User: What shape does this take?
Amino acid sequence: MLIFRAPPDMLSKLKRSTKRLLALLAILPATVLILGTIYMLGMEHLEGAPRTFLQSLQWASETLTTTGYGGDSHWNHPAVALFVILGQFMGQFLVFLIFPIFVLPYFEEQFEVRLQHVLPPMAGKVLFYRYGPAIESLLEEFNRTDSPFVIFEEDMTLARNLRDRGYNVVFGKLAEDSSVLMRVKQAKAVVTNAGDHGNATCALIVREFGFSGPLYALADDPLYRPPMLQIGATDVFTPAHVLGAALASRASTRISPPAEGMHLLGTKVGMAEFRVREGSPLAGQRLGDLHLRQQHGVSVIGQWYAGVFTTTKGPETRIESGAILVVVGTPANLEKVERMAMPIRRTGPIVLAGYGSVGRKVIEMLHDASENCIVIDRISTPGVDVVGNVLEQGTLRQAGVREASAVILALGDDSESVFATAVVRDYAPGVPLIVRVIRAPNTTRLYRSGADFAISVGQVAGQILAYHLLDEQIIAVENRIKFSRLSAGTLAGSHPWRSEALERTGAKVVAVERAGEVIVEFDDVFLVRPDDILFVCGSISSLDRYQLAFQATTTIEVRA
Assistant: This one.
């Protein structure tokens, strides 16, 4: 006789739910046999009403499945009656026990079979350990550039969701079975995005498997940076703190000056920001139709809209309603623009709402820059100036929001941030509003609610990691405007405001130094001379385009 014997490790490789289901299939018949036998003996010796073995099995199956009885519905002997009662309760118990503990987990794991449980070949791929908001934007960029990656996720529901979105996902429990990462040695890089303890475990395991490439850890607490480096991380970043720094730099001109090199012109030329409200004569207009240079002597350098700064490029540039215009001109001419747009004030305290880990980092940076700050939070703790709800006008009034130079919302929930943004914008329409975003997809909603700048942890983490993993900077969290002192180059012989090539660069000539005199207003016959020194303003990229287009070189300022 041939007897098939399963390999010794076959049962050990079965999933837990499968083992439970097999045990159930073995226990149920045995339970029916035992109950049926006891019932048969009890009916014969105690009740004096013998039942066949088949009838007893039928009674046991009806009891366990709670389907009811046929002829047997009354028992006279107390022991038999007690046995029947216990059997009935056992049947009820099994009904509620079998499905959630034995049957449902089995079917769940059958669906789970569609998920990978071991890393695929990893050559040239980046491994992300755990999914979260910090890598959300980065993964979108990976998809856009067709850069291969794999996500190792320990939450089954999230893993299924990521799989349905088309991501290459591996599901497993690293603490239970580290062999799922056996192929990590081939990976291009590893990014750990779990909690600090999970990051440490992952770093140790991938190094044990021989991975020698770059390993980047996203930490919650900067105090854990040294031990993470010690156990194998190439570098450790704290996105929440970087996010706090980005929010602070948006609000404070001391941390992030509005324009580099503006001192070159002293008080002759100033720069101002104006909000274009709905109904303003500027809203929706083409720059060429407004004639701001000709009529008011000012140059529009660019506009902030939905958190993005774009330089103006020619008369076709359209000014968006709700945008913040960056305008350069003499102080007297800038005052003329105030009649058409709301000036953005840059004096007064900076108001912060939300004193969590991100908010504390924001205040730390602002205090280091000697900024005057007012903190709003629901809970009275050291450092909180106004205890209240930012959604209530009484709280906003107490914090002096209308007199603030900027408002930062560092709340812990995006839904609350959307509503708070609308409330603050309605209460103080002229104040710059910078908002922390937790999930990148909510950024658009915040801009529609009135935010000037909405920055997510995914932006700052994505910017950091993209530099290391994709050799590029995917999201510009900071756009700087700069004044440069340049030679005339090939612009000599042309009017400083009437050159199509100049408009295409996005940079603007705001002043001309000639024979020691700085000229800031140009009549129709004014032409640039070869020995003139030009003061050009624009973003760093637009200035690079200008220098390339006009073969202009940077000149050194010489003061007596």
User: Anything to note?
Assistant: The chain has 19 helices and 22 strands. The mean pLDDT is 83. The CA atoms of residues 66 and 261 lie 86 Å apart.
